[in-house]
Amino acid sequence: MAIAPPAANNKPRINDRIRAREVRLIAADGSQVGIKPLPEALAMAREADLDLVEVADKADPPVCKIMDFGNWEYQEAKRARETRRKSSTTVLKEMKYRPKIGSGDFDTKTKKVERFLGEGHKVKVTIMFRGREVYHPELGRKILDSVAKAVAHLARVEVYPKGVEGRNMTMVLAPDKKAQAQWAAEQKRSGDPAEDGADGNGEVSTPVLDTEAEAAVDTATDA
């Protein structure tokens, strides 16, 4: 039986710090023992080489349970850490693309988007238009569609692009745990790390702009 520490506001009373004359006792196996005088409850805890812990001090009489208080504290701290981990704030990352981005830059930026999503962050994908590029919003939409397709195994589109706002077009991607689990299961079954549409090194080769579309932007820009 542990020596009772000084009472703390966020900790239950244990052993000789319990003040009630009688308690409603719960055994170590969870069974209801009933109302017992405090000295008898303490004796039962000592006999089991465990602690008597006041788990409901507002009840009349207070509810006490025979348990290993040290192990209980450890488990409570572990649950608290897990709760904090799950409730951690999601960060909104941003990745910027240009309508005339090359395939190499596209792959590099998209891999960073994948990393952000894999870490549990949302990602804002922004297409930045310059000059007369704003007259070709379909090129920005094509880039966004390519990004969404490339990361479909990790994310879903949470906010769809509404068109060019100012000189930008944006969409927001959010991690999709269901898609991630399905993709991981497929990779495990196939034993092949390469994704659909990937080359032998596992890198996605995405056609970003076709020749005619790129030429249209060049013509419009030079006009």
Question: What would your notes on this structure say?
Answer:
- It contains six helices and eight strands.
- Helix 3 links the parallel strand 5 and strand 6.
- Strands 2-1-4-3 form a four-stranded mixed β-sheet.
- The protein starts with 21 loop residues before the first strand and ends with a helix.
- With 223 residues, the protein is α/β, with parallel strands linked by helices.
- It folds into two domains: 71 residues, Roll (Ubiquitin-like (UB roll)), CATH 3.10.20.80; 131 residues, Translation Initiation Factor IF3.
Protein structure class: alpha/beta
Shape: elongated
The CATH topology of the largest domain is given as: Translation Initiation Factor IF3
The CATH homologous superfamily of the largest domain is named Translation initiation factor 3 (IF-3), C-terminal domain
- Taking all residues together, what is the mean pLDDT? 82
CATH class descriptor name of the largest domain = Alpha Beta
